[in-house]
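User: I'm curious whether this sequence folds into something compact or stays loose and floppy. Could you predict its structure so I can see for myself?
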Amino acid sequence: MVLNVTAKTKFDIYRVLQELSKTNPLFCSELEFQFYLAWKIKELYKDQFTICIEYPLKNYEGKNRNIDLLVIDSSGGYIPIELKYKTSKFEQIWNGLTFNLKDQSANDLTKYGHIKDISRIEYFKETETNFLVGYAITITNQSRTWQKIVNTEQTDYEFSLENGITINKGIKKWHECTSDYNKKHNPSVFLKNDYFIHWQDFCNFNKPRGVFKILVTEIV
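Assistant: Here's the prediction. I'll summarize afterward.
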């Protein structure tokens, strides 16, 4: 994985992810991704940063929820990180361990989840005066996540994460023909800024569903 982007702080998430892809190309779950990412940050930066797991985010859309990781620099600056790890069925032996990955969620919810994470970090930026920069990160082997949506009436059309596009600010909503479940449990999302979508390989096992791509969206 090569990510040629330079962060605006001493903390370089792209370097961390590149090193993580070498030691941990696969995870059993999103929770394991969260754990090993925090571990890698600590390994690379020692005591330069404090790491908080599941940092409380208060009153987001009237509810309290947690930010997956919060990295705090020596001056008290906040770097929130939201994570998604969504897989299609895949089996691989790596480093003596057998990974049996299941179909974790529908592809449309993977897209929705990433955009929702961007919105949460935008909210965090508004409510935390010590905010420096934030990241929404998704790793997936669901190839439809980064492919173009051709049908404009597809239920998740406005949540497209097609590689190379720019998501424009504003309200993102499901098509009117979406399920009642999505309408109730996954409401429309409002973004305050535009975001460029750039997927890259996280790991590649050269077999069906063996390409795992990563999307890092930076919120400044």
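Summary: The longest helix spans residues 107-127. The CA atoms of residues 203 and 212 lie 5 Å apart.
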